[in-house]
Specification:
Blueprint: H1 3-6, E1 20-22, E2 25-27, E3 35-38, E4 45-49, H2 54-73, H3 76-92, H4 94-105, H5 109-128, E5 135-138, E6 144-152, E7 155-159, H6 167-178, E8 182-186, H7 192-205, E9 212-214, H8 219-228, E10 234-238, H9 241-254, E11 258-261, E12 266-270, H10 276-288, E13 298-304, H11 308-320, H12 340-355, E14 359-362, E15 381-384, H13 391-394, E16 401-407, H14 410-418, E17 422-423, E18 425-429, H15 433-442, E19 447-450, E20 465-466, E21 469-470, H16 475-479, E22 483-491
Parallel strand pairs: 7-8, 7-10, 8-9, 10-11, 12-13, 12-18, 13-16, 15-16, 18-19
Antiparallel strand pairs: 1-2, 3-4, 5-6, 6-22, 11-21, 14-15, 17-20
Helix pairs in contact: 2-8, 3-5, 3-7, 4-5, 4-7, 5-6, 8-9, 10-11
The protein binds nicotinamide-adenine-dinucleotide.
């Protein structure tokens, strides 16, 4: 199947040619070098997208300011109706968008269809917020009504990563719009096409012109211009800790809020009383999801020394059974890494671990076979005998590399697991209630899975501690990021002239 070309069709969401989306119109203005979009499975160039200039950023923000004023006057029910149409159209176009996601990001087509289902769930949750309590009435003097109520922020900038280009678009757009904001999306340089298609879908669903724009371009030019724009009132970003720090430093100049969901180094902890079979299966699933490119992936597996042998044996057999294959093959469960740059980074981390004394039990680089010669294919990889001193224990891998280390006591385990600079997710496998509850208290992570793998749910709170971020997405706590509060004192008693 000629998947590369089939994503650009006259009637399709992407249209015949890619570009920014401003006020519902596709724009191809160039403000810098065009960015290539590469199919990670083949290395083929799929498209070139323009980079937005500062002037185009200004145009989009100015339109957003006007559109937001009108949108905020609409009732919650009216906004929810538009979101419901987006939800419906997402269902109708699920395969078309999933195809775009697979072509530009490399995940298996079945997983991409699942990602669109995830995107729908974010809209479903946001729609439920039409019935939320939007303020408080506080006891005060007689003849006075004191209220504190939620109001939208205004124009939100959403800076997206590449690992879930459709779901993370929805994760940010759905609550921002439901809360009464305008939103300008800056997709990742690697995966701009999904956002363009989704913006067109939102237009068809009735999102007013100017309320939602997509601007393509590099983070440090287009992204930074958006963050610095005086009329942008909040930034939500998912990506690297480095990028998050830069964005926060720029937002600090304007004193605007940021919500940052950054990298992770999730420990996957297997206590001696765990269900070993289940833990081994989940350790592999939590590592290979999206070829290891998820911030909640199992980044370092801690297994108690007494069950090490049995656990590693099972993990190895599960890993060995997974074969990378073309994302559009019916049975595909493991696709390529998103970019050559990521492949090189993962390879050098594996090589460094082996040089530092780890044992390479499986994989280690490009899988064998002609079909893997081009593109960013990385074989499922198992590293054992990993120790605390190795770089791979501390740095985020973001690839299909399962690294196993052992521990002997609970206290040692907690100290080592908490030593990471990150604090997003952790996994705990144990059938001992005391151990589980104590670990929930002691682990310094914002999201902990016990005896199960992810993904997270739209009604939870996806929040990273330490270098994993600030703020967070999802649920009522994530929704609140898109709001500020207004206090009013209304006098109505005789002493106020009544
Ligand atoms: P990145 O932080 O460079 O990019 C993420 C987004 O931020 C992109 O849209 C980028 O253009 C933008 N950006 C970067 N610097 C910016 C700046 N100064 N101002 C405004 N926008 C800016 O991350 P990446 O290149 O996508 O991935 C690098 C690493 O980040 C990965 O290897 C992985 O470790 C981590 N990552 C984490 C997640 C996650 O879900 N938390 C997702 C993707 C990547």
């Amino acid at each position: 199947m000629d998947v590369n070309r089939s994503i650009f069709t006259a009637q399709g969401l992407l249209g015949p040619e890619p570009g920014h989306v401003i006020a519902g119109i596709r724009r191809t203005d160039h403000g810098g070098d065009p960015l290539p979009v590469i199919d990670p499975a083949t290395g083929a160039r799929v498209a070139e997208v323009p980079s937005a200039s500062d002037a185009l950023v200004d145009e989009a923000v100015t339109l957003a300011v006007t559109a937001q004023r009108a949108w905020a006057r609409r009732s919650h029910t009216e906004r929810a109706k538009v979101l419901r149409s987006i939800h419906t159209l997402l269902g109708e176009h699920a395969e078309e968008i999933a195809r775009i996601v697979s072509v530009e990001q490399g995940k298996p087509f079945g997983d991409a269809v699942g990602e669109i289902g995830g995107a729908q769930n974010f809209f479903e949750y946001a729609i439920s917020q039409q019935y939320r309590d939007i303020g408080e009435v506080i006891a005060t003097e007689s003849g006075e009504q004191l209220t504190v109520r939620e109001v939208p922020i205004g124009v939100v900038a959403a800076i997206l990563p590449w690992n879930f280009p459709a779901a993370i678009f929805a994760r940010k757009v759905a609550p921002a719009l439901m809360a009464g904001n305008a939103i300008i999306v800056k997709p990742s340089e690697f995966t701009p096409l999904s956002a363009m298609a989704l913006a067109e879908l939102c237009r068809r669903a009735g999102v007013p012109d100017g309320l939602l724009s997509v601007l393509c371009g590099p983070g440090r030019s287009t992204g930074s211009a958006l963050v610095r724009h005086p009329d942008v009132g909040m930034v939500t970003m998912t990506g690297s800790t480095r990028g998050g720090r830069e964005i926060m430093a720029q937002a600090a100049q304007k004193l605007i809020p940021v919500s940052l969901e950054l990298g992770g180094k999730a420990p996957f902890i297997v206590f001696p009383d765990a269900d070993i079979d289940r833990a081994a299966k989940d350790a592999v699933a939590a590592r290979l999801w999206n070829a290891g490119q998820v911030c909640t992936c199992n980044e370092i597996t801690y297994v108690h020394q007494d069950i090490r042998e049995e656990f590693v044996e099972r993990v190895q057999s599960h890993l060995a059974a997974v074969e990378p294959s073309d994302p559009f093959a019916a049975s595909s469960t493991l696709g390529p890494l998103v970019a050559e740059r990521e492949w090189t980074k993962v390879k050098s981390m594996v090589d460094a671990a082996v040089e530092q004394g780890a044992t390479l039990a499986l994989g280690g680089g490009r899988p064998e076979g002609e079909q893997f010669a081009a593109g960013n294919w990385f074989a499922p990889t198992l590293l054992t005998d990993v120790t605390e001193q190795m770089d791979i224990t501390r740095n985020e891998v973001f690839g299909p590399v399962l690294a196993v280390t052992t521990f002997s006591t609970y206290d040692e385990l907690i100290t080592r697991a908490n030593a990471t600079p990150y604090g997003l997710s952790a996994y705990v496998y144990s059938n001992n209630l005391h151990t589980v509850m104590q670990a929930l208290d002691d682990l310094d992570f914002g999201e902990i899975y016990v005896n199960k793998a992810g993904p997270e749910r739209p009604q939870g709170f996806h929040t990273g501690w330490k270098a994993s971020g600030l703020g967070g997405d999802d649920g009522t706590h994530g929704y609140e990021r898109y709001l500020r509060r207004k206090t009013s004192y209304v006098g109505y008693g005789p002493s106020y002239g009544g």
